[in-house]
């Protein structure tokens, strides 16, 4: 009996795997985000007023308004489908975690879907206040001393919301609240992939906190992978 | 035949007007106790008394605005400092009424107590017409302020502990003089410099004068400024302890808290748990 159960379970797993593979994969849009020109040099953050954070770094960290990598890659760019995508539907049940650690935000840009739960966690030995400077959504401001439970919030309108800590003026981040579930944030390589797109005409938007937004139109006809690249003009100041 | 067309149009228009009325009605009234304020009367008063700073569109861009610091409130954004409601929510009509009555200490907003209560209620109704939020959202639920606990030495000392633990001193300074390490870097939501309250001056708070007002200020936060809400991190009775300690920081103001502390040597002692 036992072996039969195991066998059945195995079959179920295989079937599930097969279904995942066979699910309508659709087309894919992928590419890379780069910059041209010379980006402003990011200043070294002076954390001397907050020793509990300063001691977490061997070399002091720099500001994150522009983060770049090899091959002129640009990080922290939100690439998403701003038009043409089937509606994101209801928000995913999984919360997005936004951590304050070493007096910095991890991730620097947190992407949420409209009404998706945001969990703000403080792992530092100092108080932070989380202050999203929302315009379309409600602006709020909450204190979170060390050891406090996570703050749970959600935003009901699409918006790129700058978030800051007033106590530590170098702490800046973004809550990117999107309607779509088709999005990516560029990391080390500047690359992004938007998979599982049914045939259709799409507008792709790339957003960067210092360099603004760019859009491109792409048409997907079947299961192909379309390459789309974005080049931002770096600002020296 | 021709005369029929306008009458049809008129019919359509009046039908539209009737449809639109219920939603407009609620947004253009205010209710403060037994008073009902009306936006149409409020508009006349606004144009006489408020327009110079807050502007014809209520966006805080009146002709005097360039000469005013901090900038006049932007009613279109509908972010309000003094609320009885949780951070991020709209204030109650009474909150706005109290703000107009009281004025804002350390700003150019004077007290409008010389106006009648009815006039102030009318102004509240009109101020609420500038933002769509008043149509789409309801004011937040007012926070519950429990009965004040007795002023005791224990309460004051525990309040000092909270002041340290919650790091109020980062902005307000170790003695509440508004000179904490973060004080010089603070900006409001318009990115303009703003100073933390200096307790030692003993002046009125922006959002009132009573212990209840002080309780509300740190529980609800002062939206649009760096002052956050501590609603999730202070228990209701502990909040009174903090109120009692904060009062002792107002060294130039007489009060039961300061008197008690003076009778006991003059310095609050937080239980030292850090072992420093």
Cross-sheet strand order for the largest sheet of chain A: 7-13-12-9-10
Give the tally of structural domains of chain A.
Answer: 2
Largest interface: A-B, 23 and 28 residues
- Bin the strand percentage of chain B: under 5%
CATH architecture of the largest domain in chain A: Sandwich
Which range best describes the helical content of chain A: under 10%, 10-25%, 25-40%, 40-55%, 55-70% or over 70%?
Answer: 10-25%
In total, how many beta strands of chain B?
2
Number of strands of chain A: 19
Description:
- The complex is a heterodimer of chains A (237) and B (276).
- By secondary structure, chain A is mainly beta.
- Chain A has helices at 2-22, 51-54, and strands at residues 27-36, 68-69, 73-74, 78-83, 96-101, 104-106, 109-113, 118-122, 128-132, 142-144, 151-153, 159-164, 172-178, 183-185, 191-197, 200-208, 212-220, 225-227, 230-233.
- In chain A, strands 7-13-12-9-10 form a five-stranded mixed sheet, with no helix packed on it.
- In chain A, a hairpin with a 3-residue loop joins strand 2 and strand 3.
- The relative contact order of chain A is 0.26.
- Chain B has 276 residues and is mainly alpha-helical.
- Chain B folds into two domains: 28-136, Cytochrome c-like domain (Cytochrome Bc1 Complex, Chain D, domain 2); 153-263, Cytochrome Bc1 Complex, Chain D, domain 2 (Orthogonal Bundle).
- Chain B is built from eleven helices and two strands.
- In chain B, helix 7 (153-165) crosses helix 10 (236-249).
- Chain B is globular and about 55 Å long.
- Chain B starts with a helix and ends in a 13-residue tail after the last helix.
- Residues 1-6 and 15-25 of chain B have low confidence and may be disordered.
């Amino acid at each position: 009996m036992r072996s039969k159960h195991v066998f059945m379970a195995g079959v179920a797993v295989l079937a599930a795997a097969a279904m995942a593979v066979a699910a309508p994969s659709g087309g894919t849009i992928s590419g890379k985000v780069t910059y041209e020109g010379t980006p402003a040099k990011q200043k070294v953050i002076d954390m001397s007023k907050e020793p509990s954070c300063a001691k977490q770094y061997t070399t002091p960290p720099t500001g994150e308004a522009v983060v770049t990598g090899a091959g002129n890659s640009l990080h922290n760019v939100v690439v998403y489908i701003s038009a043409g995508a089937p509606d994101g539907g209801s928000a995913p049940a999984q919360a997005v975690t936004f951590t304050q650690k070493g007096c910095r935000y991890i991730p620097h840009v947190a992407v949420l879907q409209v009404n998706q739960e945001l969990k703000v966690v403080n792992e530092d030995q100092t108080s932070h206040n989380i202050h999203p400077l929302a315009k379309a959504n409600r602006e709020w401001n909450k204190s979170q001393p060390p050891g406090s439970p996570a703050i749970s919030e959600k935003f009901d309108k699409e918006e790129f919301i700058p978030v800051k800590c007033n106590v530590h003026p170098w702490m800046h981040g973004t809550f990117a609240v999107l309607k779509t579930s088709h999005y990516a944030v560029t990391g080390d390589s500047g690359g992004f992939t938007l998979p599982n797109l049914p045939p259709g005409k799409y507008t792709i938007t790339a957003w960067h906190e210092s360099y603004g937004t760019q859009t491109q139109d792409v048409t997907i006809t079947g299961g192909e992978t379309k390459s789309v690249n974005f080049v931002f003009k770096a600002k020296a100041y | 035949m021709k005369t029929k067309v306008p009458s049809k149009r008129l019919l359509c228009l009046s039908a539209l007007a009737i449809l639109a009325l219920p939603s407009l009605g609620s947004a253009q009234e205010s209710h403060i106790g037994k008073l009902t304020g009306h936006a149409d009367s409020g508009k006349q008063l606004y144009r006489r008394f408020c327009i110079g700073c807050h502007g014809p569109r209520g966006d805080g861009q009146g002709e005097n605005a360039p000469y005013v610091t901090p900038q006049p409130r932007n009613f279109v954004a509908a972010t309000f400092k003094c609320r009885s409601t949780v951070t991020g929510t709209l204030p109650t009509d009474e909150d706005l009424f109290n703000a107009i009555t009281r004025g804002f200490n350390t700003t150019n907003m004077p007290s409008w107590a010389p106006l009648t209560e009815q006039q102030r209620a009318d102004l509240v109704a009109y101020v609420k017409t500038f933002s769509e939020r008043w149509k789409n959202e309801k004011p937040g639920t007012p926070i519950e302020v429990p009965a004040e606990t007795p002023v005791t030495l224990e309460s004051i000392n525990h309040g000092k502990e909270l002041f340290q633990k919650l790091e109020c001193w980062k902005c307000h300074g170790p003695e509440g003089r508004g000179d904490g390490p973060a004080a010089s870097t603070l900006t409001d939501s318009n990115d303009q410099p703003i100073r933390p309250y200096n307790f030692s001056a003993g002046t009125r708070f922006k959002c009132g004068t009573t212990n209840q007002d002080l309780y509300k200020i740190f529980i609800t936060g002062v939206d649009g400024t760096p002052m956050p809400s501590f609603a999730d991190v202070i228990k209701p009775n502990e909040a009174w302890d903090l109120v009692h300690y904060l009062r002792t920081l107002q060294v130039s103001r007489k009060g039961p808290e300061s008197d008690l502390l003076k009778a006991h040597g003059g310095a609050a002692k937080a239980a030292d748990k850090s072992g420093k």
